[in-house]
Amino acid sequence: MSAILDALLLGAGYNAALVALGAGLLGVAAGASGSFLFLRKRALISDAVAHATLPGVGLAFIVMVALGGDGRNLLGLLLGSALSAGAGLLLIEWIARRTRLPEDAAIGAVLGTFFGLGIVLLTVIQSLSAGRQAGLEGFLLGSTAGMLRADALVIAVGGTLAVALTWLMRRPMTLVAFDADYAAALGYDIRRIDLAMMALVMAVTVIGLKVVGLILIVAMLIIPAVTARFWTDRSGRLIWIAGGLGGVSGYLGAALSSAAPNMPTGPIIVLVAAGMFTLSLFLAPVRGVAAALLRRRRFQARVHRRQGLLALAHGEPIREPYTLRLLTRQGLIRPDGVATEAGRAQAARVLRDEHRWAKAREVHQDAGLSGRYDGLTPIEEVFTPDEIAEFDRRLGPPVIVGGAA
Amino acid sequence: MHRPDLAIAAHDGQALPTDTCPADSPLAVRGLTVSYGEKPAVFSVDATFPARAMSAIIGPNGAGKSTFLKAALGVVPRLSGEVRVFGTPIEKARDRIAYVPQRASVDWDFPATVLDVVQMGLYRRVGLLGRMSGRMRALALDCLGRVGMADFAHRQIGQLSGGQQQRVFLARALAQDADLYLLDEPFAGVDAATERAIIDVLKGLRDAGKSVVAVHHDLSTVRGYFDHAFLINVRRMAEGPVETAFTAETLHATYGGRLATTQIDEVMLSGGAA
């Protein structure tokens, strides 16, 4: 336990602290920039971008070795991965634009092809450099074990740039995500804005390769955004909430993984993010599952109460067990189904409301007002007292309710 | 049935379209062709919309009304043709145009409030780095007030009725403070009160010297609402003042068998009363 605490408070050693801070920064960048992918409904494209980095990693290694350098130079590998991810991205865009194939099909085809090519290259490299461990497999699932200060610097600088670019592009990207036609009419170049969004995602993917790995970077881009959606109804806030959630999962995940020996960093970070998503899914105030369930139950109770009271008012028997239980619990009927004093009063009120609504529809042909009748809204919420007095005048003297009972 | 001379006949007493776009028209189009795949949706269309007037683009479903509007705006690419806005290429006149897309073209579950959407109309003016100042906010609220939605500013857009959504889109266009307003079916699927509110705003714009061009579906209100009519069915069918261009003959030519003669008579009668 104290090992975890140490790690969380950056006390687990220089390298662990470096990793945790780097992963936190990466999380902020990924969460914020991934928000636009989610809002633009193109989350899947990040999966293709990530998988398309792999051949670039392999090719960069081969080129650097052939030039007599160190094949594991991180900047060189990242540059290679960026180039091949860019090629994959342009290929998807080209296929979707030039053929009748939908974008998701293009994504599937490009993702598989590039990843397959990358795996072949990695296998070749492994067999060539037999004995010498190239360590390129770390790019698949992330490996922070040998992270250097220079690597952390790459993440810090890249992550900061990505966040800054997200902030700069927030208005055009929001506009394109919500209403691309309107954005085009305003004179924005939709294709260029989309490409900028993709470039941003690509940059985050590339700098995250070392920490999270290409298979799971998608989760860093998308999970914080969908989690944030549970907590806000405004895109401007969504971006920064997603950034915050991403940062927290990156930091916590990296710290936790460094506390336990041989724990992979990427999967732990993703699991932390998934944990926050699950909590939000159930507990978020308006959009959460629990809140929706509660709302539905309340609504159901209102419907049953209204129906039950109307049945009482008309002197009809109530047959549904749920309605009977509800009215008994509220003290409106006795267990044998006969209305109590309070029940008769409530029934009279509900019946009066119904009559008033019927008059309101007669008097006000305007669908805007009388169209609000849904059997549940009390008429006092829609019409003014003088209007209701007019309905009552037209209705005549009140009718004795439940006279038969 | 086929009357190729109709487009010309409708121009009696009007100047025939010339080869070049007149500079005094807020929106003029020459030889516009738009094609999805190899089937033209709009073919070689000329149109000249008058300034300080309400113009209707009328035609059956699939006649290319929305496509015509989008191509004129450069939202969909055009295969051929020339578009002039106030006598200049559209790129130079972006700030003078406000577009109101079809309400159903966006996802209303998008995380935004009513005010957020209206402020989108101000993005160009604010720029990439600018701040959405209090003055800009007040302007957006004022535009909401003009469409009767001031009390809804902080509502989530997913909670709006169809008519309210349409009003928000109109308010966003008003925020641009443009000279030419292009609307795609602003009255489709809205309640009667909203239709009145929208037409009042549009007529107010025209009376203030602005130009309005709207794709319009409801033939019975053309005469009451509009000054100028442009009938299209892939090709231009008729164009001119409503009294001369919107007739039983031109409707027949535009809609073909899709409108029964009795329906056309009804439209003409109801239009005459307005």
TrEMBL record, chain A:
Pfam family, one: ABC-3
Keywords: Cell membrane, Membrane, Transmembrane, Transmembrane helix, Transport
Domain of life, source organism: Bacteria
Name by which UniProt lists this protein: Manganese/zinc/iron transport system permease protein
GO BP, sorted A to Z: response to zinc ion; transmembrane transport
Transmembrane segments: 12-39, 48-68, 74-95, 107-128, 148-169, 238-256, 268-294
Topology with respect to the bilayer: Multi-pass membrane protein
Family per record: Belongs to the ABC-3 integral membrane protein family.
Intracellular or extracellular location(s): Cell membrane
Residues forming coiled coils: none
Organism: Rhodovulum adriaticum
CDD domains in alphabetical order: TM_ABC_iron-siderophores_like
Keyword S-adenosyl-L-methionine: no
Listed GO CC annotations: ATP-binding cassette (ABC) transporter complex
Record bears the keyword Metal-binding: no
Record SUPFAM superfamilies: ABC transporter involved in vitamin B12 uptake, BtuC (SSF81345)
From TrEMBL, chain B:
Domain of life assignment: Bacteria
ABC transporter domain segment(s): 27-259
InterPro entries: AAA+_ATPase, ABC_transporter-like_ATP-bd, ABC_transporter-like_CS, Metal_Ion_Import_ABC, P-loop_NTPase
GO molecular function: ATP binding; ATP hydrolysis activity
Biological process per Gene Ontology, one example term: zinc ion transport
CDD domains: ABC_Metallic_Cations
Presence of the UniProt keyword Cell wall biogenesis/degradation in the record: no
Alphabetized UniProt keyword annotations: ATP-binding, Ion transport, Nucleotide-binding, Transport, Zinc, Zinc transport
Family according to the record: Belongs to the ABC transporter superfamily.
Name of the molecule in the record: Manganese/zinc/iron transport system ATP-binding protein
Species of the source: Rhodovulum adriaticum
Lineage per the UniProt record: Bacteria, Pseudomonadati, Pseudomonadota, Alphaproteobacteria, Rhodobacterales
